[in-house]
């Protein structure tokens, strides 16, 4: 039975790497935010708008406990998932956890290119986004660094480099 959970800040490439890793290993891939939106029949933004961050984090915690019971899966978590409740401790008990680590500058670049709606970044100027990422990453590092494995993804900017990252993870885990 294989269970791998990818963590890291938004824009680090958790979903991209997770899908490719699942394909390479023949496993099922779950993006926790997608799982939440499917189960709740609402977008993350709608849940944030209706219930606030605290309400969203409670739902996220409950859904994490559900999906982390599945076998032979790769799970990609939202950037804040490890930082609330006992989520990081729970993930380390349930799976091989991998922190996809990138600098604030790389994350800012990735988020500028991204198409998804990020509720925590709405209505911020580029400068405010950069400052927000830097501050939040500093706060969250203590949780992220508890992962069993840390993979540097600063140079993961094309498909070949994504494949290298997937191979690095496979080597690290021996799978």
Key structural traits:
175 residues, 7 helices, five-stranded parallel sheet
Beta-strand segment tally: 5
Mean pLDDT: 93
**Succession of helices and strands:** EHEHHEHEHHEH
Structural class: alpha/beta
Cα(first) to Cα(last) distance is 11 Å
Major β-sheet annotation: 5 strands, parallel
Low-confidence stretches: none
What order do the strands of the largest sheet run in, or round the barrel if closed?
A: 2-3-1-4-5
Oligomer: single chain
Total number of helical segments? Answer: 7
Morphology call:
globular
Report helical residue fraction.
Answer: 55-70%
Summarize this, please?
With 175 residues, this protein is an alpha/beta fold. Helix content is 55%, strand content 13%. It is built from 7 helices and 5 strands.
Write the layout of secondary structure elements.
Blueprint: E1 3-7, H1 14-25, E2 28-31, H2 32-40, H3 44-67, E3 73-76, H4 87-94, E4 96-101, H5 104-113, H6 126-144, E5 149-152, H7 159-173
Parallel strand pairs: 1-3, 1-4, 2-3, 4-5
Description:
With 175 residues, the protein is α/β, with parallel strands linked by helices. 55% of the residues lie in helices and 13% in strands. It has seven helices and five strands. It has helices spanning 14-25, 32-40, 44-67, 87-94, 104-113, 126-144, 159-173; strands spanning 3-7, 28-31, 73-76, 96-101, 149-152. A five-stranded parallel beta sheet has the order 2-3-1-4-5, with helices on both faces. Helix 1 packs across helix 7. The longest helix is centred in the first third of the chain and has 24 residues, at 44-67.
